[in-house]
């Protein structure tokens, strides 16, 4: 009889907790701020801005929520086009479908496994804004934390005057020519899901240098509730705001992000 030896499973990216997370969470309990908003949410947004160099950030329930609001800020409507990476998780493209837009999917190049700039150039030439409509935005993924060929892609977006949305869900702490991914485009998105470089158990962040757009995203994320003494909503809104407890976990994790990145690099070099 042959005995089957079960091999130990190696996880792609399992959470690593340190104890600082509990301190921030305990503060939320001690102050009774356990619902959305609070000192941890405010602090997490400011600390992400400081770390990435972004002017403004909105802490949300998921990276998908951040992508959805970025798509809305770009001006999505029924039938509008978005150029999207195809080698990615479905959350990259789903928000376009939420708003009844249309995705145009792009093959990846071999070096980074991200959107091929040559394919992007051909698409811009085909969707010329005359015979074919221009896209509202390019939604670019930095797959597995590896930055895409941003110089080439940014040059094309600028040439054709189409904004860039960076799905940097997996690339927080990854830099391109000394600058954080997620900060090159008009909007950047980070995820804090359990398999990301830092986790808050769930959650995401929308960043931008357009402060008014981030304020608009926050408004949408709190059910678009108008500043009135009663419940009044003049726009469609969403329950997308991050909770103060989740933000506390994220703040504790962010203190160790360089340590997490260095460990990933060490594993890669083995």
Determine the structural class based on helices, strands and strand pairing: alpha/beta
Order of helices and strands: HHEHEHEHEHEEEEEHHH
Q: Which CATH class applies here? A: Alpha Beta
Any idea of the CATH topology? Answer: Aspartate Aminotransferase, domain 2
- Name the helicity range: 25-40%
Number of strands: 9
Q: Which band does the percent of strand residues land in?
A: 5-15%
- Which residues sit in consecutive blocks of at least 5 with pLDDT less than 50? none
Topology, pairings included?
Blueprint: H1 20-30, H2 39-52, E1 56-60, H3 63-74, E2 81-85, H4 94-98, E3 102-106, H5 117-126, E4 137-141, H6 150-159, E5 164-167, E6 175-176, E7 179-180, E8 187-191, E9 204-208, H7 211-221, H8 244-254, H9 257-269
Overview features:
36% helix, 7-stranded mixed sheet, Aspartate Aminotransferase, domain 2, two-stranded antiparallel ribbon, alpha/beta
Structure description:
This protein is an alpha/beta fold. The chain has a single domain (38-269), classed as 3-Layer(aba) Sandwich (Aspartate Aminotransferase, domain 2). The chain has 9 helices and 9 strands. It has helices spanning 20-30, 39-52, 63-74, 94-98, 117-126, 150-159, 211-221, 244-254, 257-269; strands at 56-60, 81-85, 102-106, 137-141, 164-167, 175-176, 179-180, 187-191, 204-208. Strands 1-9-8-5-4-2-3 form a 7-stranded mixed sheet, with helices on both faces. Strands 6-7 form a two-stranded antiparallel ribbon. The two termini are 36 Å apart. The model has no long low-confidence stretch (mean pLDDT 94).
